[in-house]
Amino acid sequence: MRVNQHSDGREREFDTPGALSMTSLLGRGAGQAVANPSCAVLDDAADRRGDYPASIARFDLDAIRTALPVLEHSTYLNTGAAGPLPTYARDAMREQLDAEILRGRVLPDARSVFLASLETLRAEFARRLKAPPHSIAITDTTTHGLNIALWGCLGSGAEEILTTSFEHTASLAPLKAISDLLGAKVIVYQAPPSDFDCDAFMSLATSRTKALVISHVDWTSGLDIPLKQVSTAARERGILTIVDGAQAVGVIDVDIEDLGCDAYAFPGQKWLMGPEGIGGLYIRPASLEHFHLTYAGPLSFERHGGGLQFDLKADCSRFELGTRFRGLAPGMTASLRWLGEHVGVEAAQARLRHLRARLVDRLLDLERSRGICVIAPNARSGLVAIDLPPRLSAPDLSVTLAQRSIFIRAIPGPNLNRIRASTAFFNSEAELDRFVGELDSELRSI
Ligand SMILES: Cc1ncc(COP(=O)(O)O)c(C=O)c1O
């Protein structure tokens, strides 16, 4: 167990579950996994319920939750907005911050240590996506990655971009800026409620459509999109597929080469449970030439020969700029290693599916008795969206529940009265029941 020293001299046991220390997490090279500590056996009923293979379901939930101190006092069902930060990430960032404060920032080895931390993180991101590291750029956010891909793929202003009605502002905002500045036309597929028809979507493409941008998981409904089908259809028509993976990476198995998309942006802070301000962008190596550099920095180039003489990097890291807070990459790496080595990627995803199915079951009972509507009940994601009767306002409910330390979110939108709960591997069955119980009591009281 790791004990942290507070500035007032108190020691606080905040801590890292037994076997893994910070050094063991960050000091190990890529590919050297530790055995998944298997302790608690979840109850037999849980094993029988839903998609929850016993072989990978036996991880130590208590130890996992110890690394997430926020869970001590809250029912956290909002990982779709930002996952809780594990103590490992805090420790890694604190170590860097302390080094900067105590030793200084511009030391002879500072730059090389920083660059090495980016390469370590790149390898970890690549492993999560089953991608070659050179196909990954380290970005600030999903929005940042989408901007790189969207601005970068356009040439003349006569091109069109196809998108859907369920996109996040992470892509809608750049699309608006692109259409204002370059005059590119944006075609929006109006998706039926919690449904997606690939043929109907692709039928909107024209000979001028340069790219499409689509979410892997719809953040408003939790619906998962058949991405391979979309990217295959797009490639047949010579259209680039750009994906917002914010609600998918860490939730479903993202085998990026098999999915076949050209660009895929994802965040660190949601289902990968890293700090805010760091994320990734995958670009298919064979498609790199289709994404121009629209802005650049020292890290975009292999060599600066003076003046405007630069040798551009050959791989996706050309989209990186330069300086950033040096604690971010080690913090993100610590979260990824904790997830990969202590929690177990497959086990986490299986547990998340089990919890989602369980929550949906409970909510379908309420649907019959209390007039709510569970959206996309069979979706493969970690998001459960629920339409409320008009007399119970979604924003008000999310505030009321937050006052009781239950964290969900209201989904904004015209004529929408919807809340969204995220089921993450670290949630307990009791937490889901608590949420359903509170929702039931609010529905009964209106
Ligand atoms: C689908 C989707 N895309 C993008 C974002 C924004 O992500 P980021 O803050 O990493 O840009 C979110 C959530 O905030 C989201 O749900």
Helices and strands, with pairings:
Elements: E1 3-5, E2 11-13, H1 22-27, H2 44-48, H3 54-57, H4 61-66, E3 75-76, H5 87-103, H6 110-129, E4 136-139, H7 142-153, E5 160-164, H8 169-182, E6 185-189, H9 198-202, E7 209-215, H10 227-236, E8 240-244, H11 256-259, E9 263-267, E10 279-283, E11 301-304, E12 310-312, H12 328-343, H13 345-370, E13 373-375, E14 383-387, H14 394-403, E15 406-407, E16 409-411, E17 418-422, H15 429-445
Parallel strand pairs: 3-15, 5-6, 5-7, 7-8, 8-9
Antiparallel strand pairs: 1-2, 4-10, 9-10, 11-12, 13-14, 14-17, 16-17
Helix pairs in contact: 5-12, 6-12, 7-8, 13-15
This protein binds pyridoxal-5'-phosphate.
Descriptive tags:
single chain, 446 residues, alpha/beta, Aspartate Aminotransferase, domain 2, 7-stranded mixed β-sheet, 4-stranded antiparallel β-sheet, 15 helices, 39% helix, 15% strand, disordered N terminus, binds pyridoxal-5'-phosphate
Bound ligands, each once: pyridoxal-5'-phosphate
- The helical percent reads 25-40%
Distance between the termini: 48 Å
Structural class: alpha/beta
Q: Figure out the total of helices.
A: 15
> CATH architecture of the domain at 110-339, please?
3-Layer(aba) Sandwich
Give start-end ranges of low-pLDDT stretches. 1-57
CATH H-level homologous superfamily name of the domain at 110-339: Type I PLP-dependent aspartate aminotransferase-like (Major domain)
